[in-house]
Structure formats: C-alpha cells, structure tokens
Amino acid sequence: MRVTVVGAGIVGLATADALVRRGHDVLVLEAHRPMGARSAGASRIFRLAHGDPELVAAAVEARGLWDAWSERAGRPLVGDEGAIVSGPRVDDWAAAMAAAGAAHEVGAPPSGTLGRTDGSVLHDPAGGALDLAGAGRLLQEALRDHLRPGRVVDLDELEADAIVLTAGAGTAELAAQVGVTVPDELCHHVRFAFRFRTARSSVPPAHIDDATYQHRTPEGHWAIGGHLPDAVTTTAANTLDEVRHRSREALTAHVADRLPELEPDPVDEVTCTPTAGEGDGVRTARVGNVHALWGGNLAKFAPLLGERLAEAVAGDHVAHAIGPPDDATDHGR
C-alpha cells in the first residue's frame, strides 16, 4: 500500500516507521524540517501520571514501546529519575493511576527532588525525561529514504492509497478538506532552561505542579515551562515577543521563589505553537482514505500512536482516540 504521511514531527515519524516495518510504501512530507515546530527541543517529560485511567493505561503501553526504541538506539531514551506531581491534582491523578493499576506513591517528595514543594506529592517511578532529539535522530535515520521536503496544500494532489495527517498546526486546514473539524486556535508557548548553581550527583525527578512543568535536559540544564492563560498566549492577540516576555517574567520569579539550586537567568529557550486550550488527550478521525490525528502533549505517546495509526491504515478503520476530548486543565507536558 502507498501511504503518504504529512508531517515529520515525532508522531509522524513514529507512524511512518511503523508503516515501513509493516512493509508499506511510505512517503513522509514535511513543510519545514523534521522534528521542528511542536516537536522542537531536545526533551520532554514522560509520565504514567495522568488524570484519566485511560491515559494512564495508554502511557503504560507507550512506555514499553519507548523501551523498544531505546533498544534500537542502543541507549536509554527515557530517564530513570522518575517524576512527581504536586499541588491540587495529586489526589485525582493518584486515583486514576490506582484505577489503571500503575505503580505510584503519595507522600513526601523523594530524595533528590529539586526546590521547594508544599504538601504531599504523587511519585511516578516510571516517569522521567524523554530524549526526544535522540528519538528523532533514530527515526530519521530509519526513514532516510522516505523523507521528502514538501508543503501539502491540496490532499487531492497526493497520489496515495492512504494519507495520514500528523501535521500539527497544519492539520486543521488539511482535515477541513475532507470535512473533519480540528481545533485551530493557536497559542505561543515558551520553555526556558536554567543552569544549576553547583554540580549534582544525581538527576532530580521531573516535576509538574500547578504552575509549571520541569525536567532535566540532555545538556544538563533544568527546563521549565509555565502555564499562562490562553488569553495571554493566543497568536491572534499576542506576538511571540510579548508571550516570551511574560513567560520569562513568570518563570524567573518562580525560580527565585522556589528553586534556589538554579541560576536565575535562563541560558536557552524553546518555542512552539500548540493549539490553545488542549491538555492531554488524542483525537482521531477517518474520512475515506484520509486518517487525521491531533491532540495535546502527544510526544510521550508517540510510539503507541504510530502503531495505532499504522494498524488503522492497514485495517481501514479509525485509530483509537485516547482520553477525554476536552480537558483544558491537564496541562503537564
């Protein structure tokens, strides 16, 4: 079967890789550069911890597939430092993990936790930082004969038995051509990296609280992203420079208040343009030979989404959606 995958972010590459391994004739088209846009940056947080048991179960399945990618890469692509969740989500997320049968603990922060936390935390021992850039290199090498630069404007011009839309911000416009409505209001998101004041002998657990998400980067810095209101970040109302300024103010203040182990000035930043209001969760649709996928915080599920899309293409059915469709509160990346 001839399959065209539109978009070479981590989910598009995972899908193409799964299709190639199943023996299909695959072409991946990317308008800019592979692993750019929403897959930009070297790292993300992997976690089983979510507010919905279905998301937890999907993350458990995805973790096994990340481990398989690690074997292919010859090195770990998921850190073993664990992850913690603090703040008002602890009880609900712990209940979701318990319902899914995922290992977790609620109590004092584990040894090595960075900064100050208030109250009990949810400890997810299977969590840690994803080496997203390393996964991207692995997949691009496997797909080097299948990747092509190209901007898709009209789906009717693609000569393929099946089309898979994993084009991030471009998915809404393309999916509309077959009558599928995908949320299209975008926002600016900026994540900053900070240096440690002194060398650390161990990697702190990744941390999601009510205002930020934090994790170690492959460069040895500490990445922090914040959750500003959509009204402050939407691209229609605010420029990237405005959002960058607001984000920098908020996150440097957070460092000064709660993270004395870090230097106060950022040394790096990553920007992307996600869909406004999207939390965790994956939506899918199929019309004719066109399969579309969209959602929020997809990187941790990438190998699972690739497998499910490949199975849907081969079986001519709709890939399984994951989690609640409209959860604007579950923002931890």
Mean pLDDT across the residues is: 94
How many strands in all?
Answer: 16
Q: Which strand-content bin applies to the residues?
A: 15-25%
Q: What is the strand arrangement across the widest sheet?
A: 5-6-4-11-12-13-10-14
Alpha-carbon distance between the termini?
Answer: 35 Å
Counted up, domains total: 1
CATH class: Alpha Beta
Rg over CA atoms, rounded to whole Å, is 19 Å
| CATH homologous superfamily title | FAD/NAD(P)-binding domain
What is the 3D shape? globular
Percent range for helical residues? 25-40%
Structure summarized in a few sentences:
With 333 residues, the chain is an alpha/beta fold.
Tell me what the structure shows.
The protein is of the alpha/beta class and 333 residues long. It has one domain (2-315): FAD/NAD(P)-binding domain, CATH 3.50.50.60. It has helices at residues 10-21, 53-73, 90-100, 132-142, 171-176, 230-233, 240-258, 302-315, and strands spanning 2-6, 25-30, 43-46, 83-85, 105-107, 121-124, 128-131, 147-149, 162-165, 189-194, 206-208, 212-216, 222-226, 268-272, 281-287, 290-296. The strands form 3 sheets. Strands 5-6-4-11-12-13-10-14 form an 8-stranded mixed β-sheet, with helices on both faces. Helix 1 crosses helix 8, helix 2 (53-73) crosses helix 3 (90-100) and helix 2 crosses helix 8 (302-315). The two termini are 35 Å apart. Mean pLDDT is 94; it is low at 326-333.
